[in-house]
Amino acid sequence: MEVQIRKWGNSSAVRLPKALMEQLGLDAGSTLAVEIRDGALVMRPSGPTLEEMLATCTPEKMALTEEDRQWLDNDPVGNEEI
To answer: Quick check: helix, strand or coil at residue 80?
Structure first.
């Protein structure tokens, strides 16, 4: 697939086709990490790092609900393997 670099104000822009955006799960406003690797421009969807995700795991958020406890205490009912 080829795209063309266009002038956009004092910058340049690349328009990404809808099919490519859908395949990557991107929307307008999504953030991409951009780098040069071995002479190639590489763009990838950026997201939180593992450290950032783990930082949101507080004891309050990790506490089991009553529904969780009931589910965990249930016996297998089908062909589950534990």
So the answer is: coil
Q: What is the span of the domain harbouring residue 29? A: 5-73
Domain membership flag for residue 66: yes
CB of 9 within 8 A of CB of 21? no
Contact 41/60 with Cβ under 8 angstroms?
A: no
Residue 78 lies in a domain: no
Q: How far apart (Å, rounded) are the C-alpha atoms in residues 14 and 4?
A: 6
Render pLDDT for 32-68 as a digit per residue (tens, 0 to 9): 999 999 999 999 988 887 888 899 999 888 899 999 9
Are 36 and 23 spatial neighbours (Cβ–Cβ below 8 Å)?
no
For position 66, which CATH number holds?
A: 2.10.260.10
Regarding predicted confidence, which is higher, 44 or 76?
44
State the pLDDT at residue 9. 95
